[in-house]
């Protein structure tokens, strides 16, 4: 039995998202037992298409997500964003694009929005209004899932705000990802590079507090816990990644629940760029169902374009005239469908590597 026996191809919402993540978490046949699905940050339709192409080629589900900054970029860097209007419109545009093309790729897709800190809540409100409007018309939300990241706030406030929003999301069946404990490093303008080391490791009691508060509302939520993860790629050695801590969280929650299930928590791995395959494997074994990939795919997208520009430099100095003759036209070199495509190819290849690392290959 494969994933397409339990959920359809195209964008998933509600129960189908729960089924997908549960299938990944409880899977027993793959090499690393359970597996996780990479969530790739999408900044344009080109990036989204390259990710979908990779997922199709290796017969895997995929998660496409927009950050607040990425969503604004999707709408257009030239737009004002003082009230999050560009981030709201861009998130909607990205989701509508993905919805339009995803069924053609024949893979299940989760559309998600990335970190939303307290000061960005107007962005979150705008996306939920879009979901509510879409729900009225189609009987399902536009997005599959959203992340709230109030990890910088006191724990009680973090949980209370998540509860408030989750109550609004639950009737539409939208998945909530929340963060507790802090992901170090810098991403999308949020700088946690100077956060104290102890705050980078979440405690099992904190995870349990989150679980019990949210589980009272519904089962469709996941927790991004800090276990020494850092956004971006840095010299190793500053903070030590301890994916084994995630196993302690599962054990603690399982005991609290009377031991009925071994891994009751759906966990999310942020800041995984530069992690070893062994660390990823340990994290996935402990119930990580989603791993964010941004830094490495940003790099991969550039590589194809960089190599093209370097290798074809003689063909892109003028519209006419290249090493083959002064009257030779260069249109087939400067057409964006040629050089952007080269970036799509290297990005797509990198997405496949992320899927392989997470055991997310051939599950359809
Ligand atoms: Zn993150």
Automatic annotation (TrEMBL):
The keyword Zinc applies. Binds 2 Zn(2+) ions per subunit. One is catalytic and the other provides a structural contribution. GO terms for cellular component: cytosol. Pathway: Carbohydrate degradation; glycolysis; D-glyceraldehyde 3-phosphate and glycerone phosphate from D-glucose: step 4/4. It holds the Pfam family F_bP_aldolase. One of its GO terms (biological process) is gluconeogenesis. It catalyses: beta-D-fructose 1,6-bisphosphate = D-glyceraldehyde 3-phosphate + dihydroxyacetone phosphate. It is an enzyme of class 4 (lyase). The keyword Lyase applies. Its cofactor is Zn(2+). CDD domains: FBP_aldolase_IIA. Keywords: Glycolysis, Lyase, Metal-binding, Zinc. GO terms for molecular function: fructose-bisphosphate aldolase activity; zinc ion binding. Its EC number is 4.1.2.13. PANTHER family: FRUCTOSE-BISPHOSPHATE ALDOLASE (PTHR30559:SF0), FRUCTOSE-BISPHOSPHATE ALDOLASE CLASS 2 (PTHR30559). Catalyzes the aldol condensation of dihydroxyacetone phosphate (DHAP or glycerone-phosphate) with glyceraldehyde 3-phosphate (G3P) to form fructose 1,6-bisphosphate (FBP) in gluconeogenesis and the reverse reaction in glycolysis. Belongs to the class II fructose-bisphosphate aldolase family. This is Fructose-bisphosphate aldolase. It comes from Gymnopus androsaceus JB14.
């Amino acid at each position: 039995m494969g994933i397409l026996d339990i959920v359809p191809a195209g964008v998933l919402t509600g129960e189908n998202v729960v089924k997908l993540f549960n299938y990944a978490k409880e899977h027993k046949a793959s090499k690393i037992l359970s597996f996780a699905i990479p969530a790739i940050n999408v900044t344009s339709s080109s990036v989204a298409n390259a990710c979908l192409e990779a997922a199709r080629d290796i017969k895997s589900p995929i998660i496409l997500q927009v950050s607040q900054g990425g969503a604004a970029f999707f709408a257009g860097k030239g737009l004002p964003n003082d009230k999050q209007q560009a981030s709201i419109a861009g998130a909607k545009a990205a989701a509508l694009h993905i919805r339009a093309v995803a069924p053609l790729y024949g893979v299940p897709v989760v559309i998600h929005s990335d970190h939303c800190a307290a000061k960005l809540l107007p962005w979150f409100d705008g996306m939920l209004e879009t979901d509510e409007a879409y729900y009225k018309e189609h009987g399902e939300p536009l997005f599959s899932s959203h992340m709230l990241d109030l990890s910088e706030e006191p724990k009680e406030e973090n949980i209370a705000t998540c509860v408030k929003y989750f109550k609004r999301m639950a009737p539409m069946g939208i998945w909530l990802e929340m963060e507790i404990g802090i992901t170090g490093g810098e991403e999308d303008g949020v700088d946690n590079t100077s956060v104290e080391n102890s705050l980078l490791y979440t405690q099992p009691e904190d995870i349990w507090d989150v679980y019990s508060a949210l589980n009272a509302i519904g089962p469709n939520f996941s927790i991004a816990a800090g276990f020494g993860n850092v956004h971006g790629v840095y010299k190793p050695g500053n903070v030590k990644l301890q994916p084994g801590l995630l196993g302690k969280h599962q054990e603690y929650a399982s005991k609290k629940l009377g031991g009925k299930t071994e891994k009751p928590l759906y966990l999310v791995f942020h800041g995984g760029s530069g992690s070893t395959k062994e660390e990823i494997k340990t994290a996935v074994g402990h119930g990580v169902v989603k791993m964010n990939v941004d830094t490495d795919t940003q790099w991969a997208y550039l590589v194809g374009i960089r190599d093209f520009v370097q290798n074809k430099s003689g063909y892109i100095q003028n519209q006419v005239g290249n090493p083959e003759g002064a009257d030779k036209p260069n249109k087939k070199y400067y057409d964006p469908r040629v050089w952007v495509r080269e970036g799509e190819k290297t990005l797509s290849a990198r997405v496949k590597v992320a899927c392989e690392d997470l055991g997310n290959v051939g599950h359809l």
